[in-house]
Design goal:
Blueprint (H helix, E strand, L loop, with lengths): L1 E3 L2 E18 L3 E3 L31 E3 L6 E21 L2 E22 L1 H9 L1 E3 L2 E3 L9 H7 E26 L2 E19 L2 H4 L12 E19 L2 E12 L1
Antiparallel strand pairs: 1-2, 2-5, 3-4, 5-6, 6-9, 7-8, 9-10, 10-11, 11-12
Length: 249
């Protein structure tokens, strides 16, 4: 918007939303790498399970858990962005501009058909459902109630936020024989904030076939200042000299 002959306001608003569904193969349970039975530190297929035909506890067992279904990630990503600023002329071949920009990316990830270590261990040990003791069976068809018992949905959320404010000016310092001696000056302030938030199941490694990791939080601010000169040497040749300073928190 042209406010006056020498002053202009500008702005921008945008919003982007993505919805993605990705499918992976059903959970691969490698019992020895799970955290199910705190006494031995792994998921244990106990001798007491009626489907255990080995007459001993088993931890070295691989089980592709097809009955839980494909692991599905429902991703929703949102990107709002706002810009507002002013620019103008101040005479003598000088111009300036100042603006503020805010943007954020937010990612929500719902992991469906995951399997929780401790619930799987409960089902292998035998769990009472509807007054009946039911057992997980790695070698055959399972009661749907057992599958429902240890199959879960696990949400994760990430966000990255940016705020930037800057001001700059450029113009002519002197008229040299080969042309104008130009200069550009500017300052910028920036804030970044990051969050990656899982659940206690992620933090304690309680997702079968998944990795263990804690939440991530961080923020920083950056101050920058810069200057540049455009020096005409001949009518067709110029030299440029520039410097920049940045201070990170």
């Amino acid at each position: 918007h042209q406010i006056t002959d020498s002053l202009q306001a500008f702005g921008e608003v945008s919003y982007r939303r993505l919805e993605i569904e990705s499918n992976a193969a059903p959970t691969p349970a490698f019992l020895i790498s799970g955290i199910g039975d705190s006494a031995i530190g792994t998921i244990n297929f106990p001798e007491s399970n009626p489907y255990n035909v080995f007459s001993e506890d088993i931890v070295d067992l691989r089980w592709r858990m097809i009955e839980s279904g494909n692991r599905i990630n429902d991703l929703t990503i949102q990107y709002p962005r706002l810009v507002a600023g002013l620019r103008g002329d101040i005479g003598f071949d000088w111009s300036w501009e100042s603006a503020v920009m805010y943007s954020k990316s937010v990612l929500s990830n719902l992991n469906r058909n995951s399997v929780q270590d401790q619930l799987l261990q409960d089902a292998l040990n035998g769990v009472v459902i509807d007054g009946e003791t039911l057992y997980a069976n790695p070698f055959g068809t399972n009661d749907p109630r057992v599958i429902d018992y240890f199959t879960i949905s696990n949400p994760n959320n990430d966000s990255y936020e940016v705020l930037i404010a800057d001001v700059s000016a450029s113009g002519v310092l002197y008229e040299l024989p080969a042309g104008p001696l130009g200069i550009a000056l500017g300052m910028e302030y920036r804030e970044d904030t990051l969050e990656s938030i899982g659940t206690i199941l992620n933090e304690t490694g309680q997702i079968v076939g998944g990795s263990e990791g804690t939440d991530t939080f961080g923020d920083r601010d950056v101050f920058s200042a810069y200057a540049g000169l455009s020096i005409p040497i001949l009518s067709t040749v110029e030299a440029q000299v520039a410097a920049r300073y940045e201070d990170y928190s």
